[in-house]
């Protein structure tokens, strides 16, 4: 496999691992405002990536359909939303800053369900990176190596604080630093695995590429609307989440245009 693709798949995982390593260097748990800021930043990156790196290429590839070129983007987007809704419904998980688990009743430990929540969050990111690199490899989606790298870097940048957000509360909750770091790393391992599987699947169904691009966008947007925005807006009112959302969106837009 092309070395650029291998690194592209690994970069987001490296971002998560590096963020999880903060548990070894930072003594205190992340403050509420810091968590809101990081969550807002991640939301901005994911929304911009969904538009510039996924939905726009899906529309461009379907351009020969004329006035009906919106069909693959709309269908794939809604299927992506539905897919994450299904995973969210059948998987027991626990979001940060809440004691009420979601999904079916389970006897899993609280820390395990927190890791599952982050893992669910990371699945669409891995799919997004995988489908973009599949488009680059097949030459079927007008995606350049730079454009694919922009998405990979953007996901890695927002994965860094996410790694810290998962590992540090786990340590504060009683896990050893090594255990919390390992859980943070494992939560991000689904990304390169999901990306590789998506590349393999996309290579077999090249005509479906615009649907797959939009599918990944829908899955990412589900995470933003269902999880990240409520987290950054909960509790005491603060504009920090909105400000960081704008910065994350702008950064991802710059990366995609500059590198693409």
How is this fold's topology laid out?
Layout: H1 3-20, H2 32-61, H3 70-90, H4 110-138, H5 145-172, H6 177-204, H7 209-233, H8 240-259
List descriptors.
260 residues; mainly alpha; 8 helices
Molecular structure report:
With 260 residues, the protein is mostly helical. The chain has one domain (3-21, 33-259). The chain has helices at 3-20, 32-61, 70-90, 110-138, 145-172, 177-204, 209-233, 240-259. α1 packs antiparallel against α4 (110-138), α1 (3-20) packs parallel to α5 (145-172) and α3 (70-90) crosses α7 (209-233). The mean pLDDT is 84.
Beta-strand segment tally: 0
By oligomeric state, this entry counts as single chain
Contiguous helical run count = 8
- As a percent range, the share of strand residues is under 5%
- Euclidean distance between termini CA atoms: 21 Å
Number of domain units: 1
Q: What is the approximate shape? A: globular
Overall pLDDT confidence: 84
Alpha carbon gyration radius:
18 Å
pLDDT < 50 stretches = none
H and E string: HHHHHHHH
Helix content: over 70%
Structural class: mainly alpha
Q: What would you say about this model in short?
A:
This protein is 77% helix and 0% strand. The chain has 260 residues and is mainly alpha-helical.
């Amino acid at each position: 496999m092309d070395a650029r693709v291998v690194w592209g798949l690994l970069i987001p995982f490296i971002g998560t691992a590096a963020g999880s390593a903060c548990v070894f260097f930072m003594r205190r748990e992340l403050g509420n405002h810091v968590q809101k800021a990081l969550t807002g930043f991640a939301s901005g990156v994911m929304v911009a990536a969904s538009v510039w790196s996924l939905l726009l290429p899906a529309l461009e590839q379907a351009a020969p359909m004329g006035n009906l070129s919106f069909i693959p983007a709309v269908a794939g987007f809604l299927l992506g939303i539905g897919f994450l809704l299904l995973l969210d419904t059948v998987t027991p998980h626990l979001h940060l800053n809440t004691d009420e688990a979601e999904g079916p009743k389970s006897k899993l430990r609280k820390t395990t369900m927190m890791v599952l929540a982050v893992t669910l969050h990371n699945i669409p990111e891995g799919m997004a990176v995988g489908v973009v690199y599949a488009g680059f490899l097949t030459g079927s989606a007008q995606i350049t190596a730079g454009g694919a790298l922009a998405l990979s870097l953007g996901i890695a940048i927002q994965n860094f604080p996410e790694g810290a957000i998962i590992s540090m509360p786990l340590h504060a909750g009683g896990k050893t630093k090594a255990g919390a770091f390992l859980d943070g790393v494992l939560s991000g391992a689904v990304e390169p695995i999901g990306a590789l599987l998506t590349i393999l699947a996309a290579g077999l169904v090249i005509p479906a590429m615009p649907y797959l691009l939009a599918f990944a966008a829908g899955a990412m947007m589900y995470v933003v609307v269902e999880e990240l925005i409520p987290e950054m807006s909960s509790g005491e009112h603060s504009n920090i989440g909105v400000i960081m959302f704008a910065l994350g969106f702008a950064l991802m837009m710059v990366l995609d245009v500059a590198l693409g």
